[in-house]
Amino acid sequence: xxxxxxxxxxxxxxxxxxxxxxxxxxxxxxxxxxxxxxxxxxxxxxxxxxxxxxxxxxxxxxxxxxxxxxxxxxxxxxxxxxxxxxxxxxxxxxxxxxxxxxxxxxxxxxxxxxxxxxxxxxxxxxxxxxx
Amino acid sequence: xxxxxxxxxxxxxxxxxxxxxxxxxxxxxxxxxxxxxxxxxxxxxxxxxxxxxxxxxxxxxxxxxxxxxxxxxxxxxxxxxxxxxxxxxxxxxxxxxxxxxxxxxxxxxxxxxxxxxxxxxxxxxxxxxxx
DNA sequence: ACTAAATAGGATTCTTTTAGTCCTATATTT
DNA sequence: AAATATAGGACTAAAAGAATCCTATTTAGT
Lengths: 131, 131
Ligand code: SF4
Ligand code: SF4
Prior knowledge:
Chain A is mainly alpha-helical. The first copy, chain A, has helices at 6-21, 27-34, 38-51, 75-82, 90-94, 108-123, and strands spanning 54-57, 63-66.
């Protein structure tokens, strides 16, 4: 329980790699360096690109590069770029539609506070702290 | 991602219920009150009992009651009583056996720190804060 | 002694999520 | 034109999570 998904782990490794080399790196290069499945990493990179955390260059000599300084990339952003529905509870993620018990639930509000604290923790750590 | 398991949600509801009534309550009563599947709750209660958070009484007029004051039951304990392998990463949960990349992994240590912060968050909130 | 109501716990099944793979299209450099 | 990259859809496999079923044991009350 509470595991970071592989997508997120791979994403962090990739961002760390990019931050260290501060230049362009290909998905293949990163996959080889970190021993992660290329196909999966490719998807992860695409998601990070869509979010605007990294930029991409196609074709030969292409690859990926950071769009921001490592200090400006909190883990929270990385996680949310790679996973939808990041939340402690269904209600927290999708409101009343997320859970039948929404109206009667007696633990919903306190858990909302907890979620808040979690978010702060993940906002407080950045890629810079992985270097 | 990051969802509390149903076991944990149900466990928290049950503990809240017991804390509010400060006496004995049956699994059936709690299940009905909170709209949760009885069979599943029954397992959850057994786990909480094994951990020593609650006590149980068998037979007619039996049920469950808190062994501790609500203030003395941090969420961390509840979660760990109900789930094994609570950790952000496989390595964090099972050490080197948990992951092939253990030796070469470059994000392991920083994530360890993050896990630490998470643990503090969950230690800092107790059942008393659900009342 | 018997019955009813409760916990204890094993085993199994169903569902959902996560991880991984495969294939094709498009862009760009040489 | 060929080689090397990203882009992205579709699919499959594996694992985790949730729920259910069934049987045994304990205990209060009659
Ligand atoms: S409303 Fe209550 S039961 Fe439903 S998801 Fe939120 S916390 Fe869980
Ligand atoms: S060693 Fe690295 S890859 Fe393996 S589980 Fe830990 S963080 Fe993830």
